[in-house]
Amino acid sequence: MAAQTKKPIVASDLMKIVTTSGIQISPDGNKAITIVNRKAVKNENEYYYTRHLYLLDLTNKSEPLQLTFGDRNDGQPQWSPDGTQIAFTRTDGDKSQIWLLPLSGGEAHVLTKAEFGANNPRWSPDGKKILYSSGIPFYAIEGKTTWTYERPGRTQGDEPNFKNMKADEKKKVTNSPDGSLTEVRAWLAKNASESNPRVLNRQNIQGELNLQPDENFSHLFLIDATGDAKAVQLTQGFQSFNGAEWSPDGKRIICDSKVSSVHPDKERDADLWTIDVDSKQAKQLLHWDGYSVSNPAFSPDGLSISYYASSTNGRFYSQSVIATASAAGEKPMLLTASLDRDAGPLVWSSDSKTIYFTAQTDGDIPLYSISAKGGAASKLLGNDSGINDFDVKGDRAVYALTETKNPWEIFSYSLKESAGKQITKLNESWLGERQIISPKEYWLTRPDGMKVQYWVMEPVGKKDGTKYPTILNIHGGPSAMWGPGIFSMWHEYQLENSWGYGVVYCNPRGSGGYGDKFKRANFKDWGTSPMNDILASLDEAMKGNSWIDKDNLFAEGGSYAGYMVAWIVGHDSRFKAANAQRGVYDLTTFMGEGNAWRLVPDHFGGYPWDKETKKILDANSPYSFVSNINTPLLIIHGDQDLRTGVIQSEMLYKSLKILNKPVEYIRYPKEGHELTRSGNPGRMMDHMLRVIEFFERYAKHPN
Questions:
Q1: Which residues contact 131 (CB under 8 A, 6 or more apart)?
Q2: pLDDT tier, 3 (very low <50, low <70, confident <90, very high otherwise)
């Protein structure tokens, strides 16, 4: 089809984008299982997601086969060792259970009936049992905490545990607002058990969408794969056991955990632990001073373990490094430190000699390999693209790829022949009718030597000699990374191009994907230096692309980028209009209301009650410069966004209104911080179009 007959991307194309997750190759290496994620709508405005299991034929003899159907949310698929069954999770309400799907035919059937839900199924090596985890709330755990009970004047267990009682037991407890202190406490406890009111004693009270009065502790369970026996709880107490995996001989389970001497909300580190399956004895395997370690896995030969190690020095800046040790937890070694990148998911080779992993690098997400004995990492795949998910078995890698020309497909790659082939055509049919704009890559060197990477995308239908409005699109994090390999912005960029806007985006200092020094370069400096990197990228883009109209510029961004938009328009007046989404605008307020509040001490070296730190926080808060904002500003936030907190947006909006500045405010119901990435699809489209509609009021397009 000729390019001129293709249509630009439209907002509703969001509903057509199909993605996958949870790729796992079968034991015989001939098939793979994956989750296919789609968006759906009924009754014209009721938008939702479906997640179904698909079987992929890696021999290319048959097309992908859908295995589960309906308005389902299926996930975390795992092959049985003999390749005859798939264990997976299915969500019903707010809890998920483990289900089994026989591949010889027949319906999927539920295996677990866990009171608090079941997740992360893992088959035992002999295929007879399934390990899973369940989040057990504080009130359902017996015994005493290993830390001091944080209610002065009270002791743990000095009131009836109504949350854990049956209805007839509750009736037997004497409670009265007019009784003795014991009876009053029982009456108050009964009210609290019904969340009327919510009683909060912990430090991390904000979840993503709601307050979290109760702590949850992740515990491990074993269940017979036939379902003939009741699940057995392997771990106990006020301690979480995460990322559990089997040893190849089936005798041990390895995970990360920590015995806390302080409340778990105040404990940020983890160690490696093992659990003996027969005795259920849990013990520490590896503690590494200066590092928090997590997500361990045995090598296939059982002689080594891999895990992730993060330095406890500057935690939010610390890069995740793949490390190894002996199976006994001895001789810990940082494996990927010299790569100077955050290591992503990893897979061991079948012969235990190689580890495969991904890492965000210069706008891409390549697949790397590294010898398990150490040495330099080698890049196998990923130029101007992003590998979002993968598995390796034998000499075959199966991976999901994001490219500019196609946001998501699954490919198979022969490690021996260095050759690949496409397996799925999830998005090709509708993309064949769409005009896609490719980004042009540039680099610039700042006065202090920092090198900043940026990209420019032309508007659809660009004509030589004509000027076009251009949007400066900024990323959040602040340690996120954008580039051609990042899926999350694919549709938004293309939609803005289709409306006749150029797009400029960059990775300023503080971004991930460029090494430790670059990532730490915004310490105590969230505003000025990153802003100068961003604006320098725009300035350089205008020099190299004469079609960008310097008098017709717009800016937008979410989260930290919402902060940055507000910061920029408080310091620079070049933009015709701007949009700040889900942002942080006053760092002291953010310290109180956001669940990401640790960014304050980690990025600014202290707390608001420290006089010197308070000066730095105020000097770095866009709210301090609110009276300087004259650019028309659209502020957007989700009603239930507790990562950055809604008061941030209310403060900025109300203040600009008082100052009679041009400002508008949008609040989305039932949405949290992930509105633009995994929010309700209808509200995601509404969000993008409201930003474009706002810019259209001020933009000048060529005739």
A1: 120, 121, 122, 123, 124, 220, 221, 222, 234, 244, 246, 253
A2: low
